[in-house]
Design brief:
The chain contains 20 helices and seven strands. By secondary structure, the chain is α+β, with helices and mostly antiparallel strands.
């Protein structure tokens, strides 16, 4: 009965406001509205500090440190690479779940579902482009995160196991991206994965290699079973594995703290968890605002890049009977493809990558130098730079520009109108291809400047290969564009040259291009390609 006078003193409005504040405090896991106002104004917290309560009450914040050392909150210390890696994984999860709604992992449906997604689903192309761009960025940023950790010596005691889990996360990220490579079921993906999985056959002994290859493909060749297995790896098994190692990795990061700049610690000491009160930066609100602002800005850049600059590639539908010219692995495996060009498949595809992975994971245990300062780690830093340079060189060797060349005439057409990919002709489009016959010996010029660029590049490519290849002499080309049907043009490339034996040879390749094609892959089908002496015609 004693509390009744107190209740009577409250107005209805005050009662409602108190109830609203109670609900707000529950939602924020312990921070009342008055404290949020103090945070927004930049005022110090009350006592006891209510801003610490969410770290013990909230599900998401309980894994975040309550405060950081001010030195590790500087952008240039970590470049937020760990935060970006985590954020991109969640972007991939959200966009991937949306894409799953319109996708069925069967050879009969996969490619047509991609076309339907890109042409008939609102924001379907944007969502796929965002997913692909996020995947590429995630691989790059996780790699850069490892590089930064290595260069700053942050893998040293007591963070050896943290580094090890980071290596595992890097490997999972690579295979997570690679497993999604096959899902569009186009030519580029099909043959890249076919070549990639074939390396499993090189695992010794032969019975083990054959078994691993069969398990990966689900059959002797990539088909329905292989597509389903890669789909399940991509959407279920690898994400679960990544979640597991991410939480182990993050627990270790929080447990030991982010390593301080080496100049602020004595050699052999680790004081990341011993943060003086005057150098503490609390997560709420300072670090949270910094991280949220950074991620909002990064997301805006991703949206702009996806909208105006980036387009996820989609080639023609997978055809097991036709191997495209210059099939390449994803860019992050170029170095492996480069190795395969200079060494045996077992050595380049199994032994060397295995040894490199073991050495990478063992770096903290092999490097006995207690100092993290750059001047004391010249050998480690120079070794890392040399290893990075070798990887870049091997990656270049993995591209079609090194040790893989078809006949000059084939390469000329491949540059202008490749079997897989856009090329200059498809980029200018149907309306910029006037009907006619154009001979490079006559230096033709039309009223269309974009088509004139095609003619110029055609003649320049022939001249360039004529200088490089002694078997490609007195070469010239003829480009024929005919109206095959309403809204359908036939594009025929003819290249003539004289062999060292004095015989005139000819290469002919024909494509069709449709006016209303949304994607050239639907209609840019090659008709025939042959190489024979002109006298046989």
């Amino acid at each position: 009965m004693a509390v009744q006078p107190e209740i009577k003193k409250k107005t209805l409005l005050q009662t409602v406001l108190d109830a609203a504040d109670d609900v707000f405090t529950r939602i924020t896991a312990g921070i009342p509205a008055a404290e949020v106002r103090r945070m927004i104004r930049g005022e110090p917290p009350g006592r006891p500090n209510p801003r610490l309560k969410p770290h013990s009450e909230a599900f998401l914040l309980h894994i975040k440190p309550t405060y950081y050392h001010e030195s590790v909150t500087r952008f240039t210390h970590t470049f937020r690479l760990g935060l970006l890696s985590t954020y991109l994984f969640f972007v991939e999860t959200i966009t991937g779940l949306i894409l799953m709604i319109w996708y069925a992992p069967t050879p009969e449906r996969a490619y047509s579902d991609m076309i339907r997604l890109l042409s008939n689903v609102p924001f379907g192309q944007f969502m796929r482009d965002m997913h692909r761009l996020g995947a590429e960025l995630m691989v790059a940023i996780v790699t850069l995160h490892m590089v930064r950790t290595y260069l700053t010596g942050s893998y040293k005691a007591p963070r050896q196991f943290t580094w090890f889990t980071g290596v595992i996360l890097l490997v999972i990220t690579l295979f997570l991206s690679f497993s999604g490579y096959l899902l569009p079921w186009d030519q580029l993906a099909f043959w890249a994965v076919t070549i990639g999985t074939s390396m499993a056959e090189a695992v010794p002994p032969a019975i083990v290699g054959e078994t691993v290859n069969l398990l990966a493909r689900g059959a002797p060749d990539i088909g329905a079973n292989g597509l389903l297995r890669f789909y399940l790896l991509h959407v279920l098994f690898l994400p679960l594995l990544l979640f597991l190692f991410f939480f182990v990795h993050y627990y270790k990061v929080v447990h030991f703290g982010i390593s301080l700049p080496s100049s602020e610690e004595e050699v052999g000491q680790d004081t990341a968890n011993k943060v003086p009160a005057d150098r503490r930066v609390y997560f709420l609100p300072d670090v949270m605002i910094d991280e949220a602002s950074f991620l909002i800005g990064f997301t805006a850049l991703m949206v702009l890049a996806t909208t105006f600059f980036f387009s996820a590639p989609l080639e023609s539908i997978a055809n097991p009977q036709s191997t495209p010219l210059h099939t390449v692995a994803p860019w992050y495996f170029y170095w492996l493809q480069g190795l395969l060009k200079i060494a045996d498949k077992t050595i380049a595809g199994v032994i060397i990558p295995g040894v490199l992975l073991v050495l990478l994971a063992a770096i903290p245990y092999l490097d006995r130098n207690p100092s993290r300062r750059a001047r004391d780690r010249r050998v480690a830093i120079i070794s890392g730079i040399v290893a990075g340079t070798v990887m870049i060189i091997l990656s270049w060797m993995g591209t079609p520009y090194y040790a893989v060349r078809a006949a000059p005439a084939v390469e000329v057409v491949q540059e202008l109108m490749p079997e897989e990919g856009a090329g200059l002709v498809r980029e200018i489009g149907y309306k910029h291809l006037p009907v006619g016959v154009y001979d490079t010996r006559e230096h033709p010029v039309t009223d269309d400047p974009e088509f004139n660029e095609v003619l110029h590049e055609f003649a320049a490519a022939i001249a360039r290969y004529e200088e490089k290849d002694p078997t490609f002499n007195n070469a010239y080309g003829i480009l024929k564009i005919t109206q095959e049907q309403p809204n359908l043009k036939r594009i025929t490339w003819e290249i003539y040259w004289v062999s060292p034996e004095g015989v005139e040879d000819r290469f002919v390749k024909t494509f069709f291009l449709h006016r209303d094609s949304l994607y050239w892959e639907q209609y840019g089908l090659k008709n025939f390609s042959f190489l024979r002496p002109a006298t046989e015609e």
